[in-house]
Design goal:
By secondary structure, this protein is mainly alpha-helical. The chain contains 8 helices and no strands. The chain is 62% helix and 0% strand. The protein is elongated and about 90 Å long.
């Protein structure tokens, strides 16, 4: 799979000048490796907005009203995704998602926003800042010592088992 090449403003302007001079979009695609669909979009934006249409656009923050306006305009006037994208400045991919939501769940689906990131209840547990009573502190210390004692017993048993296996095959236990 080839790595996608980014085409800067100067390159895009050069492609548009080549199209104006009569070079076909397919020929530019074959020579420079830029996607034909991307060239069509750039050409349409270049024709409608001029040179400023070749710059990378900022992402728009679409609220419910804008989504509703775009979707209803597409449904009523039978606009293509590309035409709606040029008219409103939203990407065709986002518009297609909004259309799919509208067609399956109605206008109410456009109003719902999905929160990103970790859910609010999933954070780290809060440390108890209250001072422990003497009895609670001692109980906690006893529990920690019991855990440590159990771990040491387990290590001792594993060492004894290893030494027994070594004695069976004729090796002496290591001094470590």
């Amino acid at each position: 799979m080839q790595k996608r090449k980014k085409h800067g403003y100067a390159e895009c302007l050069h492609y548009m000048q080549m199209i104006e001079a009569g070079t076909s979009i397919h020929a530019i695609h074959m020579k420079y490796g830029i996607n034909e669909d991307r060239l069509h979009v750039l050409w349409d934006r270049y024709q409608s907005e001029g040179r400023s249409g070749l710059f990378k656009r900022k992402n728009i923050k679409a609220d419910f009203a804008l989504k509703r306006e775009i979707v209803l305009d597409i449904e009523e006037n039978h606009l293509t995704l590309h035409a709606a994208s040029l008219k409103y400045g939203a990407s065709p991919q986002r518009i297609s998602v909004w259309l799919q939501q509208y067609r399956t769940d109605g206008l109410a689906a456009l109003n719902s926003t999905k929160r990103r990131g970790r859910p609010t209840g999933m954070g780290r547990p809060q440390k108890n800042s209250k001072a422990l009573t003497e009895l609670e502190r001692l109980r906690k210390e006893v529990q920690e010592l019991k855990t440590e004692n159990a771990l040491l017993k387990k290590v001792r048993a594993l060492v004894e088992e290893r030494n027994a296996r070594l004695r069976e095959i004729g090796h002496g236990p290591s001094r470590n």
